[in-house]
Design brief:
It contains ten helices and eleven strands. It is an alpha/beta fold and about 270 residues long. Strands 3-2-4-1-5-8-9 form a seven-stranded parallel sheet, with helices on both faces. The protein has a two-stranded antiparallel ribbon with strand order 6-7. The radius of gyration is 18 Å and the shape is globular.
Length: about 270
């Protein structure tokens, strides 16, 4: 894969409140902490959560004088007259991985990013409200009746990519905010997701839990990998950091070789 450009890791979900931007920024920083050359692009010009988070991180580094891994990043603004393709080329130059955060709504630029995704991540909360985004569930049996519009959109994006580039897309559905106790609703959501994954072809991995600490880290742009800078650290921080590490491993991204270009990870 040397010389083929960065691996596109795209976070997309048309529903807000799923932890998409938080997951995207933590992933970008975690991958940079691994020694990868990471670039990040925010396509949400309204919320601009990823861009603001990384700006806050840069300000913290400048203020405390401690080197922390920071991906090269920018926010796409169509009003500036620069095309999305040009912004991607500029931001991702020399990168191993390009992390793209998309708006929590249907958006033409988000669709364009989805078509280019090597790994497409759709975070959802562990509930039938969020599951409805990708599949309709029968109210009586809790069985999946049919894929939703969004699942069809992803399917069409994957088909288009296969036709134009001859490459497949690894679609990952990320179960954020999973309950830490066994519950009937949790089991039903899991069963429905499993059934849907077999029908439309995505992988399911656990994401980040519902923890106040994620929101508290935003003003300083810190992540769970920056425990020395966070200050008072508790068990919750340690557990959340482990969740983050397991999530990154679950993405199964290509590894970076000595030249900085990604290579396909070896299973085993």
């Amino acid at each position: 894969m040397a010389g083929s450009g960065p691996h596109f890791l795209v976070f997309a979900n048309e529903k807000g409140g799923t932890g998409k931007s938080t997951t995207a920024v933590h992933s970008a920083v975690a991958l940079a902490a691994q020694g990868r050359k990471v670039a990040a692009l925010d396509l949400d010009t309204r919320q601009r959560t990823l861009g603001r988070y990384l700006d806050n991180r840069a300000a913290t580094v400048k203020r405390i004088g401690v080197a922390l891994p920071i991906p090269v990043h920018d926010t796409f603004d169509p009003a500036k007259g620069e095309s999305l393709d040009d912004v991607i080329a500029r931001v991702s130059e020399g990168a191993d991985v390009l992390v793209i955060d998309t708006p929590g709504r249907d958006d033409p630029h988000a669709r364009a990013a989805m078509v280019r995704a090597d790994t497409l991540v759709t975070p959802i909360n562990d509930s039938f409200v969020d599951l409805d985004l990708i599949g309709e569930v029968d109210a009586e049996t809790y069985r999946v009746r049919r894929p939703s519009f969004y699942a069809e959109l992803v399917w069409n994006s994957r088909t288009q990519r296969a036709k134009t580039q001859g490459q497949s897309v690894d679609w990952v559905v990320l179960r954020n905010r999973m309950q830490h106790v066994e519950a009937k609703n949790m089991r039903r959501v899991g069963e429905a997701l499993g059934e849907l994954s077999r029908r439309v072809g995505f992988r399911i991995i656990p994401g980040l839990g519902e923890r106040v600490i994620y929101r508290e880290l935003f003003p300083k742009g810190l992540t769970l990998l920056d425990l020395k800078q966070i200050g008072e650290v508790g068990i919750a921080h340690i557990a959340a950091r482990q969740e983050l590490r397991e999530m990154i491993a679950g993405f199964a991204l290509p590894e970076a070789d000595g030249a900085g270009a990604p290579r396909q990870a070896v299973a085993g």
